[in-house]
Each structure stands twice: as C-alpha cells, then as structure tokens.
Design brief:
The protein is α+β, with helices and mostly antiparallel strands. The chain contains five helices and twelve strands. The chain folds into two domains: 156 residues, RNA polymerase II/Efflux pump adaptor protein, barrel-sandwich hybrid domain (OB fold (Dihydrolipoamide Acetyltransferase, E2P)); 122 residues. The strands form two sheets. The chain has a six-stranded antiparallel barrel with strand order 1-8-11-10-9-12.
C-alpha cells in the first residue's frame, strides 16, 4: 500500500507539470504578442542658398505651425546681388521710359533751333549760288570762284537736310522696334531682380508643416550649404506603428484590417488599421538551421495608423496580439 501511495505521489506532480507545460504552450501559440514602435513622418528643413546661421528661434521639442520662422541666415553676397539687380532694373526702366516718351522738350527745342540755323545758312548759300551763276554767265567771275560758291551751297543744303532728319526723329520718337527692345530689356532686368529677391527671402527659414521640432542639426554661427538640413520636424498627426513580422506569423493579415494594440506608456488599448505591408530586404530573411523540410521565411514590415484619438508619441512601444 505504501508503495502504491508513493507511486501516486510521484505521478501527480508529473501530471501537474505536463498540464502546465501544455497550457503554456497553447497559450503562447494562441497569443502571439508582437511588439512594435511608434514612428512619425519627419521633414528636414533646409535653405536653397548657402549662408551663415545667424539665429535659431526655436528649441528641440518646440511645437511649430506652418509658416513659423525657425531660423535666420546671413549672406552678404546675396544682399549685394539683390542691390546689383535693383540697379540694373532701374537703369533698364529709365531707358524704356526714354524710348516710350521720346526726347524732352528742351532737347526738342535745341534740335529745332539747329535746324532753323542750318535752313538760314542754306537759303543764304542758295541766293549766293544763283547770283554767282548769273555773274559767271556774264564772265564777271572765274570758274574757280563759281565752283567754291557751288561747294558751299551743296554743303549748306546737306547740313539743312541732316538737321531736318534729326528734328523729325526727335519729334516722332523711337521706332516701335526700339520701344519693344527697350521693354524686353526692362522685363529681363525685372525678372532678375525678382529672382534675387526670392533667394534673399530664403535666408529666413520657415516651417513647411505643423509639428514638433525633433532635432536641430546645425548650430548658430555655422556656414550651411544649400540643401543642407538645418532642422528636423515631426509632422503633426502623422504617427504610425511599425512592426517587423515573419511571414509564418502574419496569420492572414491584410491591408485595411483593423487590430487592437496595447500602449504601455498610456496604459490603454488603442485601435489601429493596417496601411502598409511590404517584405524587407534579403538580410531580414529567416534561414532555417535544419534544412530538412524547412524553407526560408521572409520578414515583412507592417505600418498601422491609429484610428482612435489617443495621444501617441514617437518612440512609444505598442503590443499587438496577432
């Protein structure tokens, strides 16, 4: 009898251990907990032009709105280019106005006076020429004297015609082609000035989105090149959970599926929706240690967006039961 009781005493603990092991195994299989992390879309803010970082107006962790000023750069070279473009624009504008409006009243009067003087000289030379022609026919003057008067008459006539042409040009103004060319040059200079002014505005670093400053990459006093990230911003309301799951544990998970996840930081369960499923590169492929009847298994990256309005933050962990 004692031997039978001793056997039962040995069997009962063994049965308890086996039952507990089976329960734990079934529990692990039925509740496959996968841990993921909360991440957020990050925007790197940079400048289109190089310059010295003169002032940073925000701190790491500061909330910002779209359009807020984040930092200010200094570029004396860009300021000089803007002033140079401004001067070229003003010069081109003045030339265009001259072509459009024509000569000033004072210039017109001066040219008209020169024409009248040339006309008087021509009329006097014409009278002298007519008189010398009659004297030459009467053989009162020599051929040489007649030729001299004729030369002066022709010269006076040419001067009068040139003065008249200049007067007509001043009165009529520039040709349409000259006006169009002057206008085109003005618009070209104006566009160059606008371009330089636009680049000058890039010295003020503006937030392109609503969010939180996650990192300040450059320090005040540093010279930053064009396109070099200065500040990183985590976009507002664009946080998501990211998981990496071996394909044999996906359990038929598809896009748009809704799952619940536990957030230890908040101590609550939140609802998520699958928004992205994609296999990782070959380095994440699971290789079986025993090749008999086993195959390589891919690891998939899963993104899940939050459906409930919980205040999740990047870096939090989230536990999913898949």
């Amino acid at each position: 009898m004692k031997q039978i009781n001793a056997k039962y005493l040995l069997i009962i603990p063994l049965l308890i251990l086996i039952t507990a092991f089976v329960y734990m195994a079934n529990s692990d299989e039925s509740k496959n907990i996968t841990v993921g992390f909360i991440e957020s879309t990050t925007i790197d803010v940079s400048s289109k032009i190089p310059g010295r970082l003169e002032n940073i107006l925000i701190q790491k962790g500061s909330p910002v709105k779209k359009g807020d000023t984040l930092a200010i750069l200094e570029s004396k070279e860009m300021l000089a280019k803007v002033e140079q473009a401004r001067g070229a624009k003003e010069a081109a504008y003045n030339k265009y106005m001259m072509a459009l409006n024509g000569a000033r009243i004072e210039e017109k009067k001066a040219v008209e006076q020169l024409y009248l003087q040339a006309k008087e000289q021509y009329l006097f030379a014409e009278k002298t020429w007519n008189r010398f022609q009659n004297l030459y026919e009467e053989k009162a003057v020599s051929l040489h004297e007649k030729d001299e008067v004729e030369f002066k008459y022709n010269a006076a006539k040419s001067q009068m015609e040139a003065a008249k042409a200049k007067l007509d040009m001043v009165n009529n103004g520039a040709r349409e082609e000259e006006k169009a060319a002057a206008k085109a040059l003005f618009h070209q200079a104006e566009n160059a000035f606008n371009e330089a002014s636009a680049y000058l505005q890039e010295l003020t670093i503006i937030s392109p989105v609503n969010g939180i400053v996650s990192n300040i990459i450059a320090d005040e006093g540093e010279i930053v090149n064009s396109g070099y990230p200065i500040i990183s911003i985590q976009k507002e309301n664009e946080s998501y959970a990211i998981l990496q799951i071996r394909e044999d544990r996906l359990n038929g998970l598809n896009l748009e599926d809704k799952v619940k996840g536990f957030l230890p930081a908040l101590g609550k369960i939140s609802e998520f929706k699958v928004s992205y499923i994609s296999p990782l590169a070959d380095f994440a492929t699971w290789k079986p240690t025993n090749q008999k009847g086993e195959f390589d298994l891919k690891t998939f990256e899963i993104h899940l967006v939050q459906l409930s309005n919980d205040n999740i933050k990047p870096g939090m962990t989230v536990q999913f039961e898949l």
